[in-house]
Specification:
Helices cover 58% and strands 5% of the residues. It is mostly helical. The longest helix is centred in the C-terminal third of the chain and has 28 residues.
Length: 220
Amino acid sequence: MAAVDAPVVPVAAVPSEPEIIYKVSSEEGTEFKVSDGALRMSETMNAMLGTNPMTAEDVEKNEAIPINNIKAEILELVFKWCEEHKGEPIPVDDDTVPKNVTIPAFDEKLMDIDNDKLFHLICAANYLNVKGLLNVSCKKVALMAKGKSPEELRVIYGIPTDEEDEAAAKVAKEEAEKKKSEKEKKAIEAPGAEEAKEDEGKAVEKEDEAKDSGEGTSSA
């Protein structure tokens, strides 16, 4: 007798709980909504959140998590990267950028920004310990510098020449002297300034006389 296959009974899928969405605020107070998985791409944030994430109700009741030293435009780039790469393995500690780091198309587009923003993005990735982002952003800088002369690198990274440094220092010194001169001028021209100065002188004289008188009495 031929074996009869047992009927397949479909098993109802167990509904998964929705991912927790956290509120995070930038230096200016701009709020972002970031998923738990994305935030955990930052080892700094992962350590802060711990192994027991808050419930949706907790998140709703709590204030936004402040990141007070990163501006909104940079924090937005960090979170976009984290959302795109959440769940991926976090690179191991390494003091150098691995030679085999490749920059995915998404990351390349994300980092198509001016050098100043790229510098602040690297600083933010380092501060939040987002190793994957730090690796690709440093790789981006390394590729930009490859084969460039010192003069070309100076232009790319906005490094001032010695002459520009000296000129900037001269301007700063002149501005400081100008402010000092204006402050002294205002003090002289202030109503009652001379009278106040005379009164102060008289008070000092009286104080000296009192001291001399006291010393004379004690000697006697």
